[in-house]
Design brief:
alpha+beta; Phosphorylase Kinase, domain 1; Transferase(Phosphotransferase), domain 1; five-stranded antiparallel beta sheet; two-stranded antiparallel ribbon; 9 strands; disordered N terminus
């Protein structure tokens, strides 16, 4: 399938990483891909660091904010966040591709499970912090999915009728969210607070830290809670996952009347990653198909394949 004339294929993540390492004066020998979802994450063994390759519209501003916010959280607040690699700035490789460098947190060979209780403790602390000195964007729901649907390269995996349905669904959920009252108030939020963003840490202020700050913003705190309830429903975590989180954080999100709308939003959020990889990864294409089929059928309960 040929790309439309106005669609520009994204820069290869490995090429972007190698170019950024040269510009930053870092040794990329032996680099290996650890993870490729919304970002491509490479381990740089010679530097004991990771390179995060971020692509898409607005990447520079988003990565710059992530970098500055993480430094403030760690250095000024002593909050257990992932730390940017000292002395190394972000590198713009192309107009829409940015590489940032971070400390590598080596995980134990037989780690204790990272649980919803760990996540709840970190979010409770985060939500009590003062406003950061840098200007955060105001939270907008479903920005990444909206941008992906409007990218002819990233959304080419969708049939036309499903593409149109998703655009309408995004608009409908956004409209519903505009009318919601937020009992927990508005402040600094992580924006993608699920247990997959937790890491064990050998050094620092806490044994467990929170990473991936790409979607940090000023927004309703309930947004950081919904991934836990969603994981229990869609990814088989079960009732204990929610119970342990609720006991530590001290709030039951499911008792709030905005809960169904946030769950519907989180369902849509979970389409973005597999959609961006579906054209070159059968595993991501299968996950996208399962999730989208469920939404098209109005299924809000069946479990999904985790990636």
């Amino acid at each position: 399938m040929s790309l439309p004339a106005h669609a520009v294929p994204p820069l290869d993540p490995e090429a972007a990483m190698l170019s950024a390492c040269r510009d930053a004066g870092l040794d990329a020998s032996g680099a290996r891909l650890l993870h490729h979802y919304s970002n491509a994450i490479f381990y740089l063994p010679a530097e004991d660091a990771v390179a995060r390759v971020t692509s898409g519209a607005g990447s520079h501003d988003r990565v710059r904010l992530t970098h500055d916010l993480a430094r403030w959280l760690v250095d000024d607040c002593r909050f257990p966040a992932t730390r940017p690699l000292p002395g190394v700035d972000i590198i713009d490789v192309a107009d829409d591709t940015v590489v940032s460098f971070w400390l590598f947190y080596r995980q134990p060979e037989q780690p204790a499970p990272l649980t919803s209780a760990h996540l709840a403790a970190l979010l409770r602390e985060l939500h009590r912090l003062e406003s950061p000195p840098m200007a955060l964007p105001t939270w907008e729901p479903l920005v990444s999915l909206h941008d992906t649907l409007h990218d002819p390269n990233l959304s080419r995996c969708l049939p036309e009728h499903e593409h149109g349905w998703l655009l309408e669904r995004v608009a409908a959920i956004r409209e519903q969210l505009r009318g919601i009252d937020w009992p927990l108030g508005v402040g600094l939020i992580h924006g993608d607070a699920w247990a997959g963003n937790l890491l064990h840490a050998e050094v620092g202020p806490a044994p467990v830290i929170l990473g991936d700050w790409d979607w940090a913003s000023t927004g309703p705190r309930e947004v950081d809670l919904i991934p836990t309830w969603h994981a229990a429903a869609r990814y088989g975590k079960g009732a204990n996952w929610v119970d342990e989180f609720r006991a530590v954080y001290g709030y039951d999100l499911a008792d709030w009347d905005g809960f169904p709308t946030l769950m519907a939003m989180r369902d849509l959020v979970q389409l973005t990653g597999p959609m961006r990889r579906a054209s070159d990864s059968p595993r991501h294409a299968a996950a996208l198909r399962q999730r989208l089929d469920a939404l098209l059928a109005g299924d809000t309960m069946s479990p999904w394949i985790a990636l």
